[in-house]
Amino acid sequence: MPTSAQMQAYWMPFTANRDYKQAPRIVASAKGMYYYDEQGRAILDGTAGLWCVPAGHSHPKIVEAVQQAIATLDYAPAFQMGHPAAFEFAEQLIEYSGHKFGQVFYTNSGSEAVDTAMKMVLAYHRARGEAQRTRFIGRERAYHGVGFGGMSVGGLPANRKQFGPLLQGVDYLRHTALPENRFSKGLPQHGAELADDLERLIQLHDVSTIAAVIVEPVSGSAGVILPPAGYLQRLRQLCDQHGILLIFDEVITGFGRLTTPFASDYFGVTPDLMTTAKGLTNGVVPMGAVFSHPKIYQTLADSPAGIEFFHGYTYSGHPLACAAGLATLRVFKEEGILHHAAGMAAYWETALHSLKGLPHVADIRNLGLIGAIELETVPGKPGARAMAVYKKAFAEGVLIRTTGDIIALSPPLILDKSHIDVLFAKLHDILAHPEA
Ligand code: PMP
């Protein structure tokens, strides 16, 4: 356990420090589907860390690849030099995407990937003589990280309110939860109608000023908001019609969460730019990446200004991250991770929906190996009910995640039926005996 001086020194991200530090939860190691605390107690991971360990914790092949890489090349500046793994990884990522994209740009996180994609959009329009296209459209309840770009287009006001003024000219597609969609399995209904909200914004603003629309195909951090059937397709149509670029933020949905390589494969909609992180390296070494359509790179490469893209990071394409990423792709292939995940999805859905009817359960949502249980909020105490479930579950050896009163689930994709049984038996038990 940390000493009280250590507790004082560590300013934790996001966490409500006072509450947490009165009863800290510490994990000391991890393997496969489990975390272990300092006493060696196993905690079943229902959230893949923070949505980022699809191939399971401390996968031996990924560990070995990183060990080898660190002994060979510790660091190489990406500005004037390359190293073999950076090129090889980019090529393999394009192949993994089914060649739907032409280039990969490396960052160190999801937030940086989002800001990078937004800068690519602006540079692209400018190179085409459309410098007035500077307006971004986000979506209510979306999360796009903590950089000033991603924070500005993110649709969670609580994440923005300490830090304004933010990027100018941002607007948001409405999120409308329809009552008939509650407890529906898979995709909810009425997507095309909801996506027509983009037409409202096109009417509202001069369309020639709109640079891009950015959405999470499935909004994760806001509590697993699924796009209703037809939603993303309609957005794509409207963007094409009006010269607007479409960005999918696949930081959560990339690398198999929906049992396909990316959510864009699941929905059959290809964006112009796609941001990724988390599962890209199986969470082992921090890394993000922007995938882009060849027209973006080509336009910038052909630009008379002669500058492709004046942007980059000290650690872009870090050798350890590339090694971890290459090993992750290899594990995906050799161990048939996506195939296995697809085989688990129906069992996952049935187990999740078996919680319907328990006290205070207001909605259940699922897709691929993602799921959410929305609880009724105790008046005046938002988030308290889900947090009570979270604390009890952790104490009883299961890690879940909460956003407000929504419990979000996103296990490592290597789970089997016995893990699903344990996870939902535990949640059933806890939800059946609410504290209040
Ligand atoms: N976009 C999405 C969709 C995310 O879920 C996250 C992180 N949860 C981010 C961006 C930011 O990623 P990072 O925390 O790696 O900066």
UniProtKB/TrEMBL annotation:
GO MF entries: transaminase activity
Entries under CDD domains matching the protein: OAT_like
Alphabetically ordered keywords of this record: Aminotransferase, Pyridoxal phosphate, Transferase
Presence of the UniProt keyword Chloroplast in the record: no
Entry keyword annotation includes Repeat: no
Membrane-crossing segments per the record: none
Name of a matching Pfam family: Aminotran_3
Name of protein: Aspartate aminotransferase family protein
UniProt organism field: Undibacterium squillarum
